[in-house]
Give the backbone structure.
Amino acid sequence: MSMLTVYLDGIGLWSPALADFAALKAQLHGQDTPAPAVRPPAGLLPANERRRAPESVLLAVEVAGQAVQMSGYAAADLPCVFSSAYGDQLISDYMCATLAQAPTELSPTRFHNSVHNAPAGYWTIATGCHAASSAISAGRASVGAGLLEAASLCIAEQRPVLLVCSDIAGAGPLLDMSATRVSFGCALVMAPQASAHSMYRLSLSLHPHAGDQLRPAPPTGAWYEDNPISASAWPLVQNLARGAGENILAAAETLALRVVMETPA
């Protein structure tokens, strides 16, 4: 694959420890940061939708809104790629338990929210976006696969693209399988050309053999290791906060994505 070059115009981030990208930058500089809200605010959703929406939707909409606001683009104009390793694990756990014990009591609303592209649907409806949207899942390679998809779309269509990567904490037997104990989301708005909003230039290249990146790293006790999205994206978002660096992301079982970040010329 030839190298893909895109320009980063917006960044969004949320976790129970960090409210946004500015909080991460402050933390890396040794500054205290206020604790975020208990649930992602997701201010772009209408109030009624915020009350009904599951955490997976609130998280994705919150980080997407942060990134788009920083970029200066109109959300309605942006094609979007939503990536999640496991989708809404709380609803999946509820559905499995209900189907096993009382299938006639299954909630239609929860069933509606269980599909993997539910966050993309809420986002596009709330923002009036008629551009293309997709939802992908690649386990621990979800961040790399999402970045590759979004960058390829950005270059092919020659227009800015929104990427959203997020996973919420698991519950029940699914938690034992996924080991996702915290929620985390991040979002990037990338463009094919540099602009006044561009913060960084990202150069992406594919390489074989991503196995090492798919295996969990030895635990250090850090909170971000308890989520497949944050564990994968953490080196990248730290580089973004510091303003330079490169890292490797798994993009598939046998493919690694090298990401080199530089200040645009």
In short: The mean pLDDT is 90. The first strand starts at residue 4 and ends at 14.
